[in-house]
Amino acid sequence: MSSTRKAAAAAATALPDGPRPRPGGDGAGSSGTYSVLDFLTDGENDAAGRQLVQLFSGYLYTPVAVAIVELGILGRLAGKALTPEDIAKDAGTDPDATGRLLRAGMAVGLLSGDEDGRFRLSAAGERLGPDAGRLGEMAVLWLEPIREAMVGLAEHVRSGQQVDPAAPGGFWDYLGSHPGEAVKFARAMGYATSRLPAALDAAGYRPPAASRVVDVGGNRGTMLAWLLKALPDAAGVIFDRAEAMATAPDFLGAAGVQHRTELVPGSFFNEVPEGDLHLLSRVLHNWDDKSVRRIVANCAKAGSRGGSLVVVEYVLPAVPEPAAGHLMDVMMMVLYGGRERTLEQHRALIEPCGYALREEYPVGAVDGGQPPLRVLEFVRT
Ligand SMILES: C[S@@+](CC[C@H](N)C(=O)[O-])C[C@H]1O[C@@H](n2cnc3c(N)ncnc32)[C@H](O)[C@@H]1O
Question: Which among 326, 288, 315 is positioned nearest to 170, based on CA atoms?
Answer without folding.
Answer: 288
